[in-house]
């Protein structure tokens, strides 16, 4: 089998998490600090909400900061196989597709603005992969097709 042709997806496909982790972490620390300070001084919680709700928001923000810092997303492409992996360490969720075709579908939002989605079609069912601009999805479909051997349906 010939080596697949390289495809350039552009700079928007590499995500650096530094700013996201920093901002979410700062928000989590700030909210938790204000919540605990109000609790220790027997004062009203931020935004006048209950103590339980304020502590719940703290836990959610801390979990979100941990997810942003430690969570991973990966795509694995192999002949006749695509895997989308999301998780932290050994705890992860994997979606696997085999014997599929690729379809780019044009849809419209409530304001009649078009948007495009890439699907893996198996057994007559569409499985959502990604939403991006049309040119980016075409480049990604070429890359996935080259690595998996799947054909792209004419569906835009």
Basic shape = elongated
Please work out how many helical segments DSSP would assign: 3
Question: How large a portion of the residues is in β-strands, by DSSP E?
Answer: 25-35%
Q: What is the arithmetic mean of pLDDT?
A: 90
Identify the strand order in the major beta sheet: 1-2-3
Give structural notes.
There is one protein chain. The protein is elongated. A hairpin with a 2-residue loop joins strand 5 and strand 6. With 156 residues, the protein is of the alpha+beta class. The protein has two domains: 53 residues; 76 residues. It is built from three helices and six strands; from the N terminus they run H-H-E-E-E-E-E-E-H. The strands form two sheets. A three-stranded antiparallel beta sheet has the order 1-2-3. Strands 4-5-6 form a three-stranded antiparallel beta sheet, covered by helices on one side. The mean pLDDT is 90. 37% of the residues lie in helices and 31% in strands.
